[in-house]
């Protein structure tokens, strides 16, 4: 948990029971007026009411590569969730439920997933595709596998190492999935902070430090 002015940021793992408990505890105890979550309208509806998800008919807009990347990412997250018996996005659902209990408004602060996937389709390079296949192959057959407790949020050191590797091996994915979305999330949180209302933001742990740095830098300039 990080605190700055009227903002509390909770860095989560989307399949961690630890994150689910932390989100509920902080929102119930801090009683914010706004709960901001790392979702866009499409993912919010899919998560809360079995609404429409990104599907085959979106390929015309987001492209084949973006569609396949989104489907593969969702499949991996689902399989990991089965291991720890936690449905992906459970901490976001808990944030929404907890917001209702304290009469807080829910704010969606992420970019439309279709825009993100469209950018991946347009910008992903052949080198990154090769690295992707290589990493999967090495991951399957490597004897020196990194052991991570999926029930908990990875520590900051591990998160930093993973982000550095992503930036090195997959510069497009780093730019689209991390860097650009950090800017969007920070911009939306800054708007909410300007209302002077108490805010709890629930975002992926990989975004937390950079988003907070962007917010602090923008506040210094104003």
Q: Could you tell me the number of beta strands?
A: 5
Low-confidence stretches: none
Backbone shape: globular
* Spatial separation of the terminal alpha carbons: 25 Å
What oligomeric state is this?
Answer: single chain
Keywords, please?
five-stranded mixed β-sheet; 222 residues; globular; 10 helices; alpha/beta
Description:
With 222 residues, the chain is α/β, with parallel strands linked by helices. It has one domain (2-221). It is 64% helix and 10% strand. It contains ten helices and five strands. The chain has helices at residues 17-30, 41-49, 59-62, 64-84, 90-101, 113-123, 126-141, 156-169, 171-193, 205-221; strands at 2-4, 7-12, 34-37, 105-108, 199-204. Strands 1-2-5-3-4 form a five-stranded mixed sheet, with helices on both faces. Strand 1 and strand 2 (7-12) form a beta hairpin. Helix 6 runs antiparallel to helix 9 (171-193). The chain is globular and about 45 Å long. The mean pLDDT is 84.
Quick summary:
With 222 residues, this protein is of the alpha/beta class.
């Amino acid at each position: 948990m990080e605190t700055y002015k009227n903002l509390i940021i909770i860095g989560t793992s989307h399949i961690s029971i630890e994150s689910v408990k932390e989100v509920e505890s902080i929102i119930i105890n801090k009683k914010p007026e706004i709960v901001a979550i790392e979702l866009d309208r499409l993912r919010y509806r899919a998560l809360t009411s079995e609404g429409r998800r990104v599907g085959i008919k979106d390929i015309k807009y987001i492209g084949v590569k973006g569609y396949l990347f989104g489907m593969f990412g969702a499949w991996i997250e689902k399989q990991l969730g089965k291991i720890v018996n936690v449905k992906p996005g459970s901490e976001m659902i808990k944030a929404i439920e907890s917001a209702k209990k304290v009469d807080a408004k829910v704010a969606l602060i992420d970019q439309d997933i279709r825009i993100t996937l469209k950018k991946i389709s347009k910008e992903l390079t052949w080198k990154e595709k090769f690295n992707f296949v290589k990493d999967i192959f090495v991951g399957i057959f490597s004897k020196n596998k990194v052991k991570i407790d999926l029930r908990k949020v990875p520590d900051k050191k591990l998160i930093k190492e993973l982000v550095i590797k992503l930036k090195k091996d997959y510069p497009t994915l780093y730019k689209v999935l991390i860097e650009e979305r950090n800017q969007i999330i920070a911009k939306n949180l800054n708007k909410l902070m300007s209302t002077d209302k108490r805010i709890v933001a629930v975002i992926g742990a990989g975004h937390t430090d950079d988003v907070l740095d962007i917010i602090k830098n923008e506040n210094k300039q104003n």
